[in-house]
């Protein structure tokens, strides 16, 4: 597929063409005066029911928010036990629709969303790890759900004694719904 932009012969509008056949004509006043689309469109940006690369009729649901953070470091990258915002990997780039991850207690975090969820009927999934080769049972649990944030805990579980909340190095959390 190709995408091109060219001026029309009278130089009064621009033409955007896809594969040389479909066109959107835009006048100098930036008003769309004609649109023609052919081919398979599946919904619109606000009503799409499936991704164009999927097959079958089962619906596809996207991730509404996600973050990968270090529970042992603050936003500057310094290892600290303080109850402050946590280090998001990639200088904050390892997240989507997340403004911050606040440590509220040892192994306890509140993830704040840039854009709130429409309800608390969403799922939180994730994983956590110490970041070393020691074999332990790491647990990431949902503590509470709100439209603007969710709270999670990370813990070590083992030895038949329940779980012990601990700060983990690698925490990946995904919000679906």
Task: Write a structural description.
The chain has 177 residues and is mainly beta. It has 2 domains: 3-36, no CATH class; 63-176, no CATH class. The protein is built from no helices and 14 strands. It has strands at 3-7, 13-18, 22-27, 32-36, 63-74, 86-88, 95-96, 98-105, 108-113, 123-129, 138-145, 149-157, 163-165, 170-176. The strands form 3 sheets. Strands 5, 6, 7, 10 and 14 form a 5-stranded antiparallel β-sheet that branches. Strands 8, 9, 11, 12 and 13 form a 5-stranded antiparallel β-sheet that branches. It is globular, with a radius of gyration of 23 Å. The two termini are 33 Å apart.
Q: Any descriptors?
A:
single chain; 177 residues; mainly beta; five-stranded antiparallel sheet; 0% helix; globular
Secondary structure class reads mainly beta
Low-confidence blocks of residues: 21-29, 37-42
Average pLDDT score: 79
How many helical elements? 0
Instruction: Report how far the terminal alpha carbons are from each other.
Output: 33 Å
Walk me through the topology:
Layout: E1 3-7, E2 13-18, E3 22-27, E4 32-36, E5 63-74, E6 86-88, E7 95-96, E8 98-105, E9 108-113, E10 123-129, E11 138-145, E12 149-157, E13 163-165, E14 170-176
Antiparallel strand pairs: 1-2, 2-3, 3-4, 5-6, 5-7, 5-14, 8-9, 9-12, 10-14, 11-12, 12-13
